[in-house]
């Protein structure tokens, strides 16, 4: 099945609210736990989260690494508003801050000691822009961890995944999940993106029936 793009930003109020209220506890905590497993030596510095959405991963990351500063980047103003509220509620506003910007427009200035991103890449029309910015953003020797959905082989398979994992979720969330699966990349496409960007030291792992992870050190 060919990739079918979905809108790059999540800006509809109802869509943003449904996403922020959904239960991603296991997935988001799992992502932060995975970062610690991949990079047991990592403990501090400035971390960027690209496509941070409503801020749950930056909060979980800042709790796990208690001296890190996290900058969440998202170009959706309603997402950033919710993220700022969540961080204030968590009492982490001194270490977790946000920028409402497209990641493509960030200065590529080796700013970060690490970078993370979950569920952003499938929104991006040109994925090479993402890998290029990731490399520019971090200093040499910095760890990066990226996770996203895998595109299934057919629309029927995508629907089956939505029914298996989001049976009781609101319709708007089920719609977005389905569209995201159709917009996602296959493992082979990710491998070829990394090869084209000369990022083959980053390793791809397919961790379950609907997610891939790319992790490693940027040189
Ligand atoms: C599916 S959400 C993932 C949110 C969060 N990372 C999580 O795991 O819960 C994807 C987010 O990426 C944002 N986004 C999409 N394209 C972007 C871009 N070019 N620059 C910055 N943010 C972008 C969307 O607005 C949306 O909030």
Helix-strand layout with pairing:
Blueprint: H1 13-21, H2 25-38, E1 46-50, H3 56-64, E2 69-74, H4 77-89, E3 96-100, E4 114-118, H5 127-137, E5 142-149, H6 155-165, H7 171-183, H8 187-196, E6 203-206, E7 211-218
Parallel strand pairs: 1-2, 1-4, 2-3, 4-5
Antiparallel strand pairs: 5-7, 6-7
Helix pairs in contact: 2-3, 6-7
S-adenosylmethionine (SAM) binds at residues 8-10, 24, 51-53, 56-57, 73-76, 79, 102-104, 118-120, 123-124.
CATH class: Alpha Beta
Give the full name of the CATH homologous superfamily. Vaccinia Virus protein VP39
Give helix and strand order, one letter per element, not per position. Answer: HHEHEHEEHEHHHEE
Q: In DSSP terms, counting alpha (H) and pi (I) runs of 4 or more, how many helices?
A: 8
Helicity range of the residues? 40-55%
Task: Tell how many strands the DSSP assignment holds.
Answer: 7
The average pLDDT score comes to: 97
Please indicate the count of domains: 1
| Termini gap | 34 Å
The second-level CATH architecture is 3-Layer(aba) Sandwich
Oligomer: single chain
CATH topology: Rossmann fold
The helix/strand class is alpha/beta
